[in-house]
Amino acid sequence: MNELLLQTIIDKLNKVDEDVRQINSVAPQIPDYTEQLKIVGVSLVQIKTDIAGMPERLKFPAAAVYTLSKNLEINNDLLKRPPVQEISHHHHVKAGAIVSACLFLLLVLGSVWLFNTRSILQAYREGDIKYRYMQLQAGKQLRPFLSTIDSLYHAHPQAFRDSVVQWEEERQRIAAMLREALEKEEEASQLRNRAGKIR
Which positions, given as ranges, span the membrane (predicted)? Predict the structure, then answer.
């Protein structure tokens, strides 16, 4: 029985060899892809190693996130309390401009002073010429009065000046009262006229 089994196996193997020869004779033009298959095998090995290392590379960066959150907290704290900026203005004015401005002001003040002094001098000259005219034109009765006035002025100039000013103020006050009395009299006459028309 072993022989029969052995013979069957040999027949089958011969038939397989015959089929293989037929396949080889029919398809001798099939190209040889062994080199490409070796390259693909190497690539597959590289892919396997890359896939094996993926979990390490895709691992969550806890340390980096912790550092980032700390920096964000510091920045938020700084934004809540902005730094106070002190603004200082610096004016750069040249010394020549300051000196020129001062000299111009001095020139203006000097001109104003000279104009006022000239006006005062003109008033004194007018008063002097009027007084001299009164002395020349005065009759016998006015000359002693003018000499008395001169002697009073030279004896006490400030008291004389004060009495003249007081006298002028008194005359102005009396003139104002007279003006007011005239206005009131005019107002009273207008009221009388109206009262007469109403009757």
Answer: 95-115
Q: What token pair was written down for 4?
A: 């029969």
Q: Quick check: helix, strand or coil at residue 141?
A: coil
User: Is residue 184 domain-resident?
Assistant: yes
Structural domain containing residue 132: 124-155
**Tokens 């002395």 found at:** 135
Task: Specify the 3-state DSSP secondary structure of 110.
Answer: helix
Decide: 146 and 135 in contact? Cβ < 8 Å.
yes
**pTM of the entire predicted model:** 0.33
* Burial bucket for residue 166 (CB in 10 Å: 0-12, 13-18, 19+): exposed
Q: Which two tokens stand for residue 91?
A: 């004016």
Instruction: Express each pLDDT in 7-26 by its tens digit.
Output: 887 888 888 888 888 777 76
User: How does the average pLDDT of the chain come out, rounded?
Assistant: 82
**Confidence tier at 78 by pLDDT (50, 70, 90):** confident
**For residue 135, is it within any domain?**
yes
Contact call for residues 160 and 152 (beta carbons, < 8 A): yes
Tell me, yes or no, whether 142 and 177 share the same domain. Answer: no
User: CA–CA separation, 67 vs 94, rounded Å?
Assistant: 54
pLDDT beyond 80 at 120: yes
Distance CA 119, CA 123 (A): 6
Whole-number Å distance between alpha carbons of 188 and 194? 10
